[in-house]
C-alpha cells in the first residue's frame, strides 16, 4: 500500500506540468471527513479534496491558460473539461475573484474555518464562519463545514457564484453573477437576483456592478426559494406552496447524468446535462436542455450597451441557440477575445469641417435590413422623403445611422455609440449605416476601369471572342438600340422624386428640353457601348431627376422602328424594371429618358469593399428574377434581355433591384420563340448557345441570371484572375466543386449572416447550377427559378454542368 502510493507520488512529480495543465491531482484520496488542521497547496500532492464518488473536487486549480495563477474552486472532477461550479470570491463590496500564486496555502484551521494565505502568510480569503468540527466534499458538489452535532456551519451551495447544481436551494437575497468570459472568472455583465417577489435577471455595468433594468424575470409571491431538484426541475416556490418554473428541464436521473445550470457570460441562464456513461441520447459533452430568456437579443437597457457591446448587434443563431455579437460592415471588434467591448470604426470618422459636397463624395449609406439599434436616436424629422432623410444623415457629422419609416414618412438619425443592436426576422426595419466610399470606386467609369486594371482579364475577354472570329463583326454591330447603359451615380445627389412621378405616361421630349434638363449634357453618369448617359432634372413641379441616354450609333434604325420599339419598352411596368419615362426622336437625335436610380449599379456594391448584407442580397436576387419573369412571360410581347449582368442591374433609393437596358434585346413576338441575332451579351455572362449558332431563347437570360446569382452569393465576380488558387478563378466551376463536396460554406467564408443561413445558401447555389446547364432546355424557366428561390418547390440535385469549359474558355 505504502509502496503503491510512493510510486504514484513520484509519477505525479514527474508529470507535474502535465497534471497542472489538466488541473487534476489524481494522487489525492477521496475522503469523507476533513479534519481540522488539514491543508492544501496548489503544487503538492494534496491540491484538492475529492467527494466519496470522486465526481467533485474542492481545492486549487490553475486559471485557464495561466499556470502561475490558481483559483480556490469546486469542479466536476471526472469529465474531461473539469467544469468549475464554484470559486472563491472576495467578501468585500467588489466581490472579485480570488486568484493566488503557486506557493499559497489553504488550511482548515483549528478554529474551524477555511483560511487562504499567500506565500507571506497573509490571509487573502476566509469563509467568515468559525466553529466547524470537520469539512467534507459531498457527492452533490456541495463543500460543507459541519459542526460536531452534524449541522452545517458553511457551504458552497449557500454562497453560489454562477452555477447551481441539483439539490441546491437558493434563498431570497442570494445572487448568481456571470463570469466576464468563459475563461476569465472576473465579475461579468449579468446578475440573477432572487428576491421575495421573484427571480430577476439584470444586466450590470462593469466594473461597478450597477444594475440596469431587468431583462427577464420569473414572478413569485412571497418567494421563499429557488430550487434545482434532483429530477432536473428548476423553479421558485411561493409562500403558499405554488411553484413557478424557470426552466422546463428534462427528467434525467442524477445517477446517469451530471447536471448544472449556469448564468453564462452572455446573460443566458442555461441548464446542461452530461451523460456519465456513453449514451445515444446526448454526446459526451455538456448539452443545453433549456435556457432563459428565449431570445436575449431582444433585451434592451436604457443605459449601457445592451446585450452586446457598443456598435455591435446581437443574433440568436438558430443552428445552436447561441448568442452571437456581430460588427457592422467596416467596423471591427475592439478585442476579438472580448467581444462585449464593442466594435470600432475601421475608418476615419467624418470630419465636421467637411462641406456637403465632400461629405457626399466621401461617404455613403449602406442598407442593413432586419437590424436596429433602438436606443440611439438623437434627431427626428417628419414628414420627409427617404432621399431627404439619407441626405440629412450623410451631411451630418454626428449621424452614424439613418432610419426611415415610410409608413409615416419619419426619419431618425442615430449617433455613436450605437446600443442594444439586434438583427433578426422580427426586426422590421432597414437602417442605413454611414461608411466611407471605397476609394478605388471613385471613378465614374467602372466598366472601362475594370478592364484596364486587369490586362489579363481583357485578353481573356478578347481571345474569347476572337477565337470565335465570325462573331467579332457581329459583336461590333450588335450594339443595338440601347447598348450598354451603365448608370453609375457616385455623387448621390438627393432626389426629391415623389412616387407619383413613376406613373408618368411615356412622353415625347424635344431635344431642347433635354438639353436644358441636363444643363447641356454636363454630368455623365456612365458610358455604354451605344451612347453616353447623362444626369438631368426636369423642370416640373417635383424637379424629377432623370437619366438621359444619348444614342450615337444608330444609323440604320429608321425613325419608325425606333418609335415602335420605344413604345413597346414604354409599356413595360414592373417594380424590378427601370422605367422609361420618355424619349426624343428629333432629326438625327435619339434620346431615351429613364427614371434616375440614386444608388447606381449593382456591380459597384457587389464587388466593392463593403459587403452587402446577406438578407439584402437575397432580396436583390429575387428582384432580378421577378423582373425577368415579367419580361419573359408577362409582357404582351416577350422580351429577351440578352445582356443580364451586374452593370445592368440598377438600385433605387430603397435598394430595390431594377433591370435596365432591356431594349438591347430585339423584341420578340411570343409565337416566334427562336431567333438568330448574333451575340449580344457580355463575356462571362453569356450562355454557351451564343457560340453555337443555334437558336436563342429566353434561356440565355436564365444562364446569365445563374452567373449573377453566384456573384450575389459569394460577392465576387464570375471571373477573377487575381485569385491565387487556379480552381477558384472561375466562380461557376468553383461553386460547382464546392456544391459537389457539400461545402457551400466556403463560398460565403467570413460572412456570418450567410453562414447562419447555410440552408438558403445551398438552395441558391443549387438553383444557380440549374441555370448554368449547358443544354438550354435543361435550364428552368425564370418562373420556376423564382419558385425554387422562394423555397416553394423541392429542388432536385442539379446535373454537373460539364459545359462550363466549353462556354467559358
Ligand atoms: C497569470 O496570473 C498572474 C497573477 O494573477 C498574472 O500576474 C499574470 O500576468 C498572468 N499571466 C498570464 C499569461 O495571463
Ligand atoms: C465525520 O465526523 C463526524 C463528527 O464530526 C462523525 O460523527 C462522523 O462519523 C465522521 N464520519 C466519518 C466517515 O468519519
Ligand atoms: C400575493 O399574495 C397576496 C396574499 O397572499 C395577495 O394579496 C396578492 O394579490 C398576491 N399577489 C400576486 C401578484 O399574486
Ligand atoms: C422535481 O420537481 C418536479 C416539478 O415540481 C416534480 O414533478 C418532481 O417530482 C420533483 N422531483 C423530486 C425528486 O422531488
Ligand atoms: C397561491 O397564490 C397564487 C396567487 O398568488 C394562486 O394563484 C394560487 O392558487 C395559490 N396556491 C395555493 C395552493 O393556495
Ligand atoms: C471543453 O472545452 C473546449 C474548449 O473550451 C470545448 O471546445 C469543448 O467542447 C469542451 N468539451 C466539453 C466536453 O464540454
Ligand atoms: C433552440 O431553442 C428552441 C426553444 O427553446 C428549441 O425548440 C430548439 O430545438 C433549439 N434548437 C437547438 C438546435 O437546440
TrEMBL record:
Q: Which SUPFAM superfamilies match?
A: alpha-D-mannose-specific plant lectins, Protein kinase-like (PK-like)
PROSITE patterns given in the database record: BULB_LECTIN, PROTEIN_KINASE_ATP, PROTEIN_KINASE_DOM, PROTEIN_KINASE_ST
Question: Which UniProt keywords are given for this protein, alphabetically ordered?
Answer: ATP-binding, Disulfide bond, EGF-like domain, Glycoprotein, Kinase, Lectin, Membrane, Nucleotide-binding, Receptor, Serine/threonine-protein kinase, Signal, Transferase, Transmembrane, Transmembrane helix
InterPro entries, sorted: Bulb-type_lectin_dom, Bulb-type_lectin_dom_sf, G-type_lectin_kinases/EP1-like, Kinase-like_dom_sf, Prot_kinase_dom, Protein_kinase_ATP_BS, Ser/Thr_kinase_AS, SRK-like_kinase
Per the database record, which ranges form the Bulb-type lectin domain? 31-158
State if ATP-binding is listed as a keyword: yes
* Domain named Protein kinase: residues: 519-805
Specify the signal sequence span. Answer: 1-30
What reaction(s) does this enzyme catalyze?
A: L-seryl-[protein] + ATP = O-phospho-L-seryl-[protein] + ADP + H(+); L-threonyl-[protein] + ATP = O-phospho-L-threonyl-[protein] + ADP + H(+)
Q: What's this protein's name?
A: Receptor-like serine/threonine-protein kinase
Could you tell me the superkingdom of the organism this chain comes from? Eukaryota
Write out the transmembrane intervals: 457-482
Binding-site list for ATP = 550
Amino acid at each position: 500500500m505504502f509502496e503503491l502510493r510512493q510510486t504514484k507520488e513520484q509519477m505525479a512529480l514527474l508529470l507535474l506540468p502535465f497534471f497542472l495543465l489538466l488541473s487534476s491531482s489524481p494522487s489525492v484520496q477521496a475522503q469523507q471527513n476533513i479534519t481540522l488542521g488539514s491543508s492544501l497547496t496548489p503544487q503538492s500532492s494534496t491540491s484538492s479534496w475529492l467527494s466519496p464518488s470522486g465526481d467533485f473536487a474542492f481545492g486549487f486549480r490553475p486559471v485557464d491558460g495561466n499556470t502561475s495563477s490558481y483559483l480556490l474552486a469546486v469542479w466536476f472532477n471526472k469529465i474531461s473539461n473539469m467544469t468549475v461550479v464554484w470559486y472563491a470570491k472576495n467578501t468585500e463590496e467588489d466581490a472579485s475573484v480570488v486568484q493566488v500564486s503557486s506557493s499559497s496555502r489553504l488550511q482548515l484551521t483549528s478554529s474551524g474555518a477555511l483560511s487562504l494565505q499567500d506565500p507571506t502568510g497573509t490571509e487573502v480569503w476566509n469563509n467568515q464562519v468559525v466553529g466547524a468540527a470537520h469539512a467534507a466534499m459531498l457527492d452533490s458538489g456541495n463543500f460543507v463545514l459541519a459542526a460536531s452535532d452534524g449541522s452545517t456551519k458553511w457551504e458552497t451551495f449557500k454562497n453560489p457564484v454562477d452555477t447551481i447544481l441539483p439539490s441546491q436551494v437558493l434563498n431570497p437575497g442570494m445572487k448568481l453573477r456571470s463570469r466576464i468570459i468563459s475563461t476569465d472568472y472576473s465579475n461579468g455583465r449579468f446578475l440573477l437576483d432572487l428576491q421575495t417577489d421573484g427571480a430577476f435577471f439584470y444586466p450590470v455595468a462593469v466594473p461597478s456592478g450597477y444594475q440596469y433594468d431587468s431583462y427577464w424575470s420569473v414572478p413569485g409571491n412571497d418567494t421563499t426559494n429557488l430550487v434545482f431538484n434532483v429530477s432536473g426541475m428548476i423553479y421558485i416556490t411561493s409562500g403558499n406552496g405554488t411553484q413557478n418554473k424557470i426552466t422546463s428541464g428534462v427528467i434525467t436521473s442524477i445517477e446517469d447524468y451530471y447536471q448544472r445550470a449556469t448564468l453564462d457570460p452572455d446573460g443566458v441562464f442555461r441548464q446542461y446535462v452530461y451523460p456519465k456513461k456513453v449514451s445515444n441520447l446526448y454526446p459526451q459533452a455538456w448539452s443545453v436542455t433549456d435556457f432563459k430568456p428565449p431570445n436575449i437579443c431582444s433585451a434592451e437597457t436604457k443605459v449601457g450597451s445592451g446585450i452586446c457591446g457598443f456598435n455591435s448587434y446581437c443574433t440568436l443563431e438558430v443552428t445552436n441557440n447561441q448568442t452571437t455579437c456581430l460588427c457592422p460592415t467596416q467596423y471591427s471588434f475592439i478585442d476579438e477575445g472580448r467581444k462585449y467591448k464593442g466594435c470600432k470604426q475601421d475608418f476615419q470618422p467624418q470630419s465636421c469641417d467637411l462641406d456637403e459636397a465632400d461629405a457626399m463624395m466621401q461617404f455613403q449609406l449602406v442598407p442593413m435590413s432586419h437590424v436596429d439599434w433602438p436606443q440611439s436616436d438623437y434627431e427626428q424629422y417628419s414628414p420627409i422623403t427617404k432621399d431627404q432623410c439619407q441626405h440629412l444623415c450623410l451631411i451630418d457629422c454626428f449621424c452614424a445611422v439613418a432610419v426611415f419609416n415610410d409608413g409615416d414618412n419619419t426619419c431618425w438619425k442615430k449617433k455613436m455609440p450605437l446600443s442594444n443592436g439586434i438583427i433578426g426576422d422580427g426586426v422590421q426595419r432597414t437602417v442605413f449605416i454611414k461608411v466611407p466610399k471605397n476609394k478605388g470606386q471613385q471613378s465614374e467609369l467602372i466598366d472601362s476601369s475594370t478592364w484596364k486594371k486587369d490586362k489579363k482579364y481583357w485578353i481573356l475577354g478578347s481571345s474569347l471572342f476572337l477565337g470565335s472570329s465570325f462573331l467579332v463583326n457581329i459583336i461590333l454591330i450588335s450594339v443595338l438600340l440601347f447598348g450598354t447603359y451603365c448608370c453609375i451615380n457616385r455623387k448621390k445627389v438627393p432626389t426629391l422624386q415623389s412616387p407619383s412621378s413613376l406613373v408618368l405616361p411615356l412622353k415625347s421630349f424635344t431635344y431642347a428640353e433635354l438639353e436644358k434638363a441636363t444643363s447641356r449634357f454636363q454630368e455623365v453618369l456612365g458610358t455604354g457601348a451605344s451612347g453616353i448617359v447623362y444626369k438631368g432634372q426636369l423642370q416640373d413641379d417635383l424637379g424629377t431627376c432623370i437619366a438621359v441616354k444619348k444614342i450615337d450609333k444608330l444609323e440604320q434604325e429608321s425613325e419608325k422602328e425606333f418609335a415602335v420599339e420605344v413604345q413597346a419598352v414604354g409599356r413595360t411596368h414592373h417594380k424590378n424594371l427601370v422605367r422609361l419615362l420618355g424619349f426624343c426622336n428629333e432629326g438625327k437625335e435619339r434620346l431615351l429618358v429613364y427614371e434616375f436610380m440614386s444608388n447606381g449599379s449593382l456591380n459597384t456594391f457587389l464587388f466593392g469593399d463593403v459587403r452587402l448584407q446577406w438578407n439584402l442580397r437575397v432580396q436583390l436576387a429575387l428582384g432580378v428574377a421577378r423582373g425577368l419573369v415579367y419580361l419573359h412571360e408577362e409582357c404582351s410581347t416577350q422580351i429577351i434581355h440578352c445582356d443580364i449582368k451586374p452593370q445592368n442591374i440598377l438600385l433605387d433609393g430603397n435598394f430595390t433591384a431594377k433591370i435596365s437596358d432591356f431594349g438591347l434585346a430585339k423584341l420578340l413576338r411570343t409565337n416566334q420563340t427562336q431567333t438568330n441575332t448574333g451575340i449580344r451579351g457580355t463575356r462571362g455572362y453569356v450562355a454557351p448557345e451564343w457560340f453555337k449558332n443555334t437558336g436563342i431563347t429566353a434561356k440565355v437570360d436564365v444562364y446569365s441570371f445563374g452567373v449573377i446569382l453566384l456573384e450575389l452569393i459569394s460577392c465576387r465576380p464570375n471571373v477573377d484572375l487575381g485569385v491565387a488558387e487556379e480552381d477558384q478563378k472561375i466562380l461557376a466551376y468553383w461553386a460547382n466543386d464546392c456544391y459537389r463536396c457539400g461545402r457551400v460554406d466556403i463560398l460565403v467564408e467570413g460572412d456570418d449572416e450567410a453562414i447562419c443561413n447555410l440552408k438558403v445558401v445551398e438552395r441558391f447555389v443549387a438553383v444557380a447550377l440549374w441555370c448554368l446547364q449547358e443544354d438550354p432546355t435543361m435550364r428552368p424557366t425564370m418562373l420556376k427559378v423564382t419558385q425554387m428561390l422562394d423555397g416553394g418547390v423541392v429542388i432536385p440535385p442539379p446535373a454537373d454542368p460539364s459545359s462550363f469549359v466549353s462556354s467559358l474558355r
